[in-house]
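CRISPR-associated protein Cas6 C-terminal domain-containing protein
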Amino acid sequence: MSLALSDSLPIARYRFTLRTEAPLMVAEYPGSMLRGAFGHGLKSVSCLTDLPHCGECPMRDACRYPALFEPRPGPEQSRFPDIPAPYILEADNQQNRQLAAGESWSFHMVLFGSAIDQLSVIIMAWQRAATQGLGKGKARCRLEQVEWLSPNGDVQTIFHEHSPRVVPHEAHLSIPALTSGREVTMELLSPTRIQSGGKLRQGSELTGPIVLHALARKIELYAGSYWGATWKRPTIPEDLELTETTRMQQWQRYSSRQRQAMSLNGLVGTLQLSGSLDQWLPWLWLGQYTHLGKNTSFGLGQYRLEQTDQAVQQATNDMAEECTTS
């Protein structure tokens, strides 16, 4: 089965807006901070036993914490040795990083599959995380509102701090009609870790097939893990060419579990693909939700697709507007 434009996919992007109650310093790539805060908040509102490790817990299979934060493959996912968490965190690096008390700051969360049905729990987790405090100084915040960002650029407020319920909304994604084009540019917005042959690749080592295969693997991983889809991967165009203008961005995160700093360096810049790309356009467009490469739950591998064709560019512009509209 091919990836069809008419497919309704269980993918939704939300914007969470926080209001600070104390000064907050945001890291250049705050995905690690956000993921850690979300994990603590989610465990706080979900865990019934207070056991230190989920593997020992008799409630594991019924608990929302491991399902959302530490998922493991079920029988229907046996072809995947590991599965990603059903979310991706995204932060706008153009926002102010030094916030005084009373200022607002927002980030995005892309949810996949059944995680969309757990949105109320996820919102509760962020409320708890904000109250517990963010960043090194544990700056207290409050969750002010949550908005659903539709792929056509519409924005719908589905939760506000003064309302106890989540507003029903059309939480799905359909790939828009994409007109033929022979050239696309992927603007890498966060460090992108593309592996090939078990090795993290420098920009100069990338080829068109390496990029497209990495993109397809990531989409197949989310699709197979969270809604059981198996799509036929397009063939690599014989005339495919890649022009890269990238640099390796140094980035580290501290792992509380491993008690050490971990290097997550990745590429930023642009990747320009040219050739007979018609069959790959839906995959390239969808990759703006699944991201590209390794460690995407932190927000790494985020890119924006640009194309000279007006119709395709409009679909991408709508998505860009969805991500930036206040």
